[in-house]
């Protein structure tokens, strides 16, 4: 009998990625396409279906035994429904699982992308060998996934671990979700660029003005990272503030879950110790004495592929492939 193959999908606000993997977790082919969320879900799903068939063409869809989707949350993983993902504002209340099931009569799972990234890091990356893991993706927004006893934590109805919406300052700035003082609006890549714009000292020694062409509206988190790596004091100060804010949320998560490791992923993690050092310092200042030095705080090893590898592992696990 042929070994089972699976399709893993990672859907984000900018693009979706599709990979074909064998029973040994090896990626055999992959494709990426822009999500084009503004065109609406029907167009996007049709292009996704076409990309799935294209990615599986080397072996044929008849040898694919399952499809696992890592999707921007919040979602209903039981029914496979997108709820109100901020990064996909036109994809609200979209029953992706049932739509894919009409095309492919095989098992299909739709899971939160950060949950799948947590699974990926647990199986193949920075959290290998640990049973209690918190994964935090820090990018345009902030998301999270939690592994307990080797399995992803789910809510009763909705994908759990929306850690970006932990309140760290009730009087803080307004989050995209409508709440105030959430860690997402105070530590994400979007927050980093906003804080830099607020601090940029025109005509001073900071290189931020030069990097953005003296147009603060063009300032990105990547520019702030570049400036901080060059030693720019304003950019370093922004990362210290963002890392301290993120550490407030991490300290609360440590008190609740007592994890072995916290893995920081997403685009902002490319800043390395610029973000990790203030997170660790913030945590050390705030956790109870018995929790000090118990939890490792490390950077993702799989980077952008965390969700894809997590979806592969999840699908094969559901199919009982050892």
Annotate the secondary structure layout.
Elements: E1 5-11, E2 15-21, E3 27-34, H1 41-55, E4 64-71, E5 75-76, E6 81-82, H2 96-103, E7 108-112, H3 113-124, E8 133-138, E9 142-148, E10 151-152, H4 184-187, H5 189-199, H6 208-211, H7 221-229, H8 233-257, E11 261-265, H9 273-286, E12 296-299, H10 306-318
Helix pairs in contact: 3-10, 5-7, 5-8, 7-8, 8-9
Outline the structure in words.
The protein has 10 helices and 12 strands. With 322 residues, the chain is α/β, with parallel strands linked by helices. It folds into 2 domains: 5-119 and 305-318, 2-Layer Sandwich (Nucleotidyltransferase, domain 5); 128-300, 2-Layer Sandwich (Nucleotidyltransferase, domain 5), CATH 3.30.420. It has a 5-stranded mixed beta sheet, sandwiched between helices. Strands 10-9-8-11-12 form a 5-stranded mixed beta sheet, with helices on both faces. A two-stranded antiparallel sheet has the order 5-6. Helix 5 runs antiparallel to helix 8.
């Amino acid at each position: 009998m042929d070994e089972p193959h699976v399709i893993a999908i990672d859907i984000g606000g900018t693009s979706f990625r599709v990979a074909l993997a064998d029973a040994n977790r090896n990626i055999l082919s992959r494709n990426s396409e822009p999500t084009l969320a503004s065109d609406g879900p029907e167009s996007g799903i049709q292009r996704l279906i076409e990309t799935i068939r294209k990615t599986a063409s080397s072996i044929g869809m008849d040898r694919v035994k399952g499809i696992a989707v890592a999707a921007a949350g919040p979602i209903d993983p039981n029914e496979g429904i997108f709820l109100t993902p901020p990064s996909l504002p036109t994809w609200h209340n979209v029953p992706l699982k049932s739509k894919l099931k009409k095309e492919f009569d095989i098992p299909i799972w739709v899971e939160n992308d950060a949950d799948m990234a947590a699974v990926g890091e647990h199986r193949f990356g920075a959290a290998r060998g640990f049973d209690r893991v918190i994964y935090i993706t820090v990018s345009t927004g902030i998301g999270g996934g939690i592994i307990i006893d080797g399995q992803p934590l789910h809510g009763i109805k909705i994908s759990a671990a929306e850690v970006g919406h932990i309140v760290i300052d009730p009087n803080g700035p307004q989050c995209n979700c409508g709440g105030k003082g959430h860690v997402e609006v105070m530590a994400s890549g979007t927050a980093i660029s906003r804080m830099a714009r607020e601090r940029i000292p025109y005509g001073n020694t900071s290189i931020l003005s030069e990097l953005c062409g003296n147009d603060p509206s063009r300032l990105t988190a990547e520019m702030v990272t570049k400036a901080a790596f060059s030693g720019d004091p304003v950019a370093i100060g922004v990362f210290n503030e963002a890392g301290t804010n993120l550490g407030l949320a991490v300290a609360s998560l440590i008190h609740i879950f007592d994890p072995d490791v916290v893995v920081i992923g997403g685009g902002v993690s490319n800043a390395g110790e610029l973000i990790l050092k203030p997170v660790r310092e913030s945590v050390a200042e705030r956790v109870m004495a018995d929790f000090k030095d118990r939890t490792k705080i490390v950077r993702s090893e799989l980077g952008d592929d965390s969700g894809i590898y997590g979806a592969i592992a999840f699908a094969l696990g559901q199919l009982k492939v050892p």
